Give the backbone structure.
Amino acid sequence: MMTKIHDTADTPQWQRLAGAAIGGGEARMTRHQITRVRHETRRRTLTVDRIEDVTPGMRRIHFTCADLADFASAGFDDHVKMFIPGPVAPGERGMMRDFTPRRFDQAAGTIAIDYALHDAGPAVAWAIAARPGDSLEIGGPRGSAIIADDFDWYWFIGDATALPAIGRRLEELRDGVPAVSFVLVDSPAEAQEIVTQTDWTPHWVVRSGSDDAANLIAATADVPLPRGDGFIWIAAEAGVARAVRTAIEARGHPRAWLKASGYWQRGDEGVHVKIED
Ligand SMILES: Cc1cc2nc3c(=O)[nH]c(=O)nc-3n(C[C@H](O)[C@H](O)[C@H](O)COP(=O)(O)OP(=O)(O)OC[C@H]3O[C@@H](n4cnc5c(N)ncnc54)[C@H](O)[C@@H]3O)c2cc1C
């Protein structure tokens, strides 16, 4: 079941601004509309079917699920809660981490999640150790923000954790629309082939030194912002996402057409930061 919502009190600031920026009323209903959809949430059990290493640092796990017929994920940057398998104390919910449904097919009962491998953390440790037949539970997505595919161009900026959402969006955007991605990676081997009908220009920004924000800001600074209305989507470590957003805004891009999120936070576990101030 889906519930559509436009500009409610709990609509994030970037979505309210997007409505205001284009004059509201009828225009908002037809141009650059951002629609929030809520989904009924429940837990589903996934079983590992096969494991694919898309690149050395990105593991795609293909799951089957007997209960996927009414799974809803309308937004490319939706997330599911992954419940980390393991003992849970009575009354506790256990550990949860957020992941993007990279691909899913309700009729076939299949779903894939891409795990950006890193050194610490139970979610990624589970993905590294996973074998066909293993199972885990997910919840959600609780809701989606559907960004209209009527902008003149799109930019995507992020690190490996953003790549599943970026890949999903590149696969669904309309034919020929200019799309540029700037993705911070550990090595050139992390460049992914993504099949897209967009006019896609990928920039694989190989990490140099310890200042990830500086790497991404330098890469984007070399590229002029295109003319026309564009939507810029950013997701990375929280401090990095915030710094990149500030740099993009300083170039005059309207905040209304900018969405930035911290997909993790250095030194903290399981953090999701919505950057709206
Ligand atoms: C909406 C949303 C969607 C997301 N989608 C995806 C996705 O599809 N694929 C994906 O791989 N990730 C995704 N992430 C990021 C993922 O949820 C985090 O990286 C998460 O912290 C991983 O859990 P963990 O148990 O492995 O590590 P945690 O226990 O959360 O963290 C352990 C330590 O590792 C650090 N850490 C966490 N992530 C990273 C990282 N990527 N690189 C280096 N250090 C890190 C933490 O700061 C902490 O110090 C998403 C996050 C959000 C909010």
